[in-house]
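User: For a benchmark we're assembling, each entry needs the component sequences followed by a predicted structure for the full assembly. Here are entry 17's components. Please fill in the structure.
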Amino acid sequence: MERLLQVENLVTQYKTAEGMFSAVKGISFTVEKGETVCIVGESGSGKSATALSIMGLLPANGKITEGSIRLKDDELVGKTEEQLQQIRGNEISMIFQEPMTALNPVFTIGFQIREPLMIHLNMSKKEATLVSIELLKKVGIPNPKEKIKQFPHELSGGMRQRVMIAIALACEPSLLIADEPTTALDVTIQSQILDLIDDLKEQMGMGVVFVTHDMGVVAEIADRVMVMYAGEVVEMGDVHRIFNHPQHSYTKGLLAAVPNVDDDSKNWLQGVNIHGKSSASS
Ligand SMILES: Nc1ncnc2c1ncn2[C@@H]1O[C@H](COP(=O)(O)OP(=O)(O)OP(=O)(O)O)[C@@H](O)[C@H]1O
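Assistant: Structure for entry 17:
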């Protein structure tokens, strides 16, 4: 496997009325090409702060105060906003929970997919339109030629999230960061979107950092799992190992919260598919 992302001793702090608060407390992890790493943990454990640190999208009161984030040997910590914008357009893309807030309601779908192609890849409007239609096809949107003329509110939640994924993939990023992208969707659509991300990862050889608090989602999509608690990594390992032999009591607690799962740790996820395989056979 080829190393894509290396995070070392990352400390991310927020300035608050009470002083500096460390949301991320010196975490280290790696992501290989073609690998999905899920970051799991309860609300407030620092998952989003980690994702936003990698993207260089921390809010104004947030700051990386220590550590290193290397993307293919390029150090991201300390880059200017302009340099980071370049990297976000080309190398790293992000998808969020609520596509309605990320899509601009006053522009057509077509306009919003064309924009990054014209800006970052210098395509003409005509070229960008053709590529947009291909991208919408790739993410499973029917009648793409019609859809590019529509506005976000004319699409269902699942279709909007597919549009967001198409936009995120437009510049063929090497790293996709997904922060709870399926939380707002119903279970069937959620499963389709997870399959789509997984297929596109395979086709494009992307690395994926997937933030979620849902262990059912982890079972569907993760290769490796990083468990965060109070800004620290308490456990990291292969998805099968984490589900079948969780080491940390906090991880065991997270697994216990998965519905319809037997309480005995040997029976974790019986009946739940991990990448289409029964966990019992691995
Ligand atoms: N803009 C901010 N200013 C101050 N503190 C913040 C800010 N954003 C997050 N925090 C704090 O940082 C900690 C980590 O938050 P973060 O959003 O990374 O958690 P999370 O694991 O992603 O949670 P969730 O699942 O709810 O999104 C929390 O204690 C949170 O209150």
